[in-house]
Amino acid sequence: MPSRVRRFRTGLSAAALTAAALGALLPPAQAAGAGDGAAGGHPDHDKRLQQRLERLVAQDDGPPGAIALLTRGGRTQVYTAGVGDITTGRRPDPDDHMRIASIAKAFSGAVALRLVDEKVLSLDDTIGERLPGQPATWHAVTLRQLLRHTSGLPDYSGDPEFLAILQSDPRHLFDPRALLGFVADEPLLFRPGTLYEYSNSDNIAVALMAEAATGRRYEDLLKVYRPLGLRQTSLPLGYRLPRPYLHGYDITPPAEPEDVSEAVSASGVWASGGIVSTPRELGAFMRAYGGPTLLSEKTREEQLTFRPGDSSEPAGPGTNAAGLAIYQYTTRCGVLYGHTGNFPGYTQLAATTPDGTRSLTFSINTQTNKSNKPALLARLRTVEEDFACALLKDR
């Protein structure tokens, strides 16, 4: 797919809308208080981490702002740099709404794996068994392969017809349950289970299988995570964001930054990337999903069976390996489990220690991935690893 195509509106490129862009049960961290606050003058904050965050924002192609939350037990440290809104100068806040992009895949994974625990679904269930209306050539693909991105399903978000609609009307309201129709006439890319290919189609199929198994809408199935305290987490179909929100920007020097927070409809990504959350709630979710409390020991063993070298999109800190809708990040200081995501205006990381007691969320308000600003991504991953080391060290 071309890296740059016709620009529309006042600056957002259609390249930002490609496939890469489109892609429980613990209490949330304590409310803002003694452990919270921007890093500048707080005695418990690491000045070196703050400086690295500020240098990331200061780059010409860098984000206008960044926010990182380090949570240990019930105590959260909040580091911010730059601004969450260029117009007002307001700093990023742990309770700002934001598009979490492909971290939404961890949510669809959590829904599916809970249904596996409840014996409503099996990891060996196939598309043919649960979704017989999908193309016959896809019928042998299993839920396990979808969750691990080894299904071979072609990615609908790279389909020319889909992209043409998005380019002509970025706020187009798609029927999320019909997204796979864009590639229904295409064969599998490879024999299921033999290769890894990150695909937004996979988690659309996961959500549809969950609906078929339960007779309930995916949006309702997500509500089982309300015990986590996720009151500000939602799955909208439109382009609006709840207030207040972290503004996302298209940064293409020498052009002025363009606010793209509400430029694109979330209906085109749905279960693959449409969830809106906050830095605080994202950490609470990942501590549950990546920790030992959400799933049975047997299902968690399946979840954490990793394929070395297969990375999330964009790649997370350290060396990546792919599990079932979760990734292992082996940093120089230890291992975290989590997921990343990118969407026009946003790049995200949420990770937890394997015991679920500590978490890191790292958000910047511009998009970067391996094909869009790879140099920025390399710098971002370095800073993310610095924060991961701070999370993992004893203190």
Relative helix content: 25-40%
Class based on secondary structure composition and strand pairing: alpha+beta
Query: How big a fraction of the residues is strand?
Result: 5-15%
Strand runs, count: 12
H/E order of the elements?
A: HEEEHHHHHHEEEHHEEEEEEH
Helix count from the secondary structure assignment: 10
Q: In this structure, how is the largest beta sheet organized?
A: 8 strands, antiparallel
Write a structural description.
It is a single chain. The protein is built from ten helices and twelve strands. With 395 residues, it is α+β, with helices and mostly antiparallel strands. Helix 2 packs parallel to helix 6. The longest helix is centred in the last third of the chain and has 19 residues. It is globular.
Topology:
Elements: H1 47-58, E1 65-72, E2 75-82, E3 98-99, H2 104-117, H3 127-130, H4 143-148, H5 160-168, H6 200-214, H7 218-222, E4 249-250, E5 258-259, E6 276-277, H8 279-290, H9 297-303, E7 307-308, E8 319-322, E9 327-331, E10 334-343, E11 346-352, E12 358-364, H10 374-392
Antiparallel strand pairs: 1-2, 1-12, 3-6, 4-5, 7-8, 8-9, 9-10, 10-11, 11-12
Short description:
This protein has 395 residues and is α+β, with helices and mostly antiparallel strands.
Summary tags:
disordered N terminus, 395 residues, alpha+beta, 12 strands
